[in-house]
Amino acid sequence: MLGGTVGMALAASGLSAGRAWGDTPLHEDPFTLGVASGDPWPDGVVLWTRLAPQPLAPDGSGGMPPYAVDVQWEVARDDRFRSVVCRGRTRAVPELAHSVHVEVSGLQPDRHYYYRFRAGRVLSPVGRTRTAPPPHSRPRELDFAFVSCQAWFEGFYTAYRHLAEEDVDLVLHLGDYIYENAIDAMGGVRNVPVAAELRPEPMNLVQYRNRHALHRFDPDLIAAHQAHPFALVWDDHEVEDNWARDKSKADTEPDQDPAVFRERAAAAFQAYYEHLPLRLPNKPNGFEARMYRRLRYGRMATFHILDTRLFRDDQPCGDGIKSGCDERLTPGRTILGPEQEQWLHSGLGRSDTTWNMISQQIPVTQVDTDPGPGQAFVMDFWDGYVDARRRLFKELTDRSVNNPVVLTGDMHRHLAADLKQNFDDPDSPTLGVEFVGSSISTTKDGMDLDPSGVKLLAANEHIKFTNFQRGYVHCSLTRDSCRADFKVLPYVTTPGAPISTRTSYVTEAGRPGLQEA
């Protein structure tokens, strides 16, 4: 069974002290964390791996030596590498945990390619990727999936095994790739012994590297990355729950000092880059980083990928769920920061694609949690930044933005909603739609309709659907419609669950609003 495979692999790799590379046989596999590709352009992609024969070595080295190692790479049209189109050599350096980020160019648009790496005499697994279509082409269809929230200790990554077998052009990861929470001695529901040094909440680079390796060292997640290109952006748990710019969550940890928190966040940013297929512009420089960017898929879609953490104002009224919080209404409050906000607004206004997919972390739609006559809102959501949402909606209207669709993670639930010009007026114009995807594993098994979901439907007429099972969303775009299939699993606390489509919603081009398919 899959769970047994994970358990044996963890027990064998790094849960005790690792050996130095010089003492490791050359045939030992340095590709234990797999391979990945990301951010497709029409002429290329970024290819990733990390050399780590002992990925959970307590010192964060992955079992590698303190010096650079040559790595060869090649890209082919076929998985047997009979038709190699390009190859090269790079160096994996200890300063970046012996990770490799190769930005390949000169490829043909809208085509599958296969890639692999070689370190010494060892070949990596073969990955498959796909380039984006030409910028001004008109694809007939575009299929992609979006995922988020994968607490390793709260569930198995069975959803990724199913996603690896789907036919999609791209996978968007909208945040919470790791969780920073302390882990118990048996790894939560996975029931795998976890070494004492890997359990505490990470605070420094070594600890964040090992937390990434722990989440990354999973055959289902490796399979999904091996099968599809990803485009990723962080949320909060990559650093700490509900962080905002240089402010830590209120607790008793030493990072309450902003200077200390910036050091902690810089370590988290670096480990994030080291473990994922990101391009050089996304490489952090200490606490400075730019994760927001765009991907274009012909004339079909533009993906506007946002960072709602690094540049936001602090959550109003002390965070949490609050009613009667006037601070959330303060003019000028920002969740994106001035530079990113202007970048988003101008990019939406210039876009000539049929669909504008706004890919980000927390719900844009109003989420009233009180089904009674009053209202209560989550201060961490866009509800805590009402003027920022008003400015976005004004731009959507003033610039006549083509078919905006917001894609969101974070909530650990599926949700489909109309974006209303005035959420308190059901007859207000609908400006676009939002699809929220559930978690891969966070909050364990869940259920179809939980008590909180019942309250959300009762309090928010614009929310058309919610579900509290684990899963992901598969979207299909044509020139006429955007369809979202909400995929669910009956359980994740044990491996091997089947997957099904709970429901599907469609929005038509030129006619904003949701219809059940």
Automatic annotation (TrEMBL):
Q: Which InterPro entries match?
A: Metallo-depent_PP-like, PhoD-like_MPP, PhoD-like_sf, PhoD_N, Phospholipid_Metab_Enz
Provide the PhoD-like phosphatase metallophosphatase domain boundaries. 144-486
For this protein, the record's CDD domains field holds:
MPP_PhoD
Tell me which residues make up the Phospholipase D N-terminal domain.
33-131
Q: What Gene3D superfamilies does UniProt report for this protein, alphabetically? A: PhoD-like phosphatase, Purple acid phosphatase-like, N-terminal
Give the protein's recorded name: Alkaline phosphatase D family protein
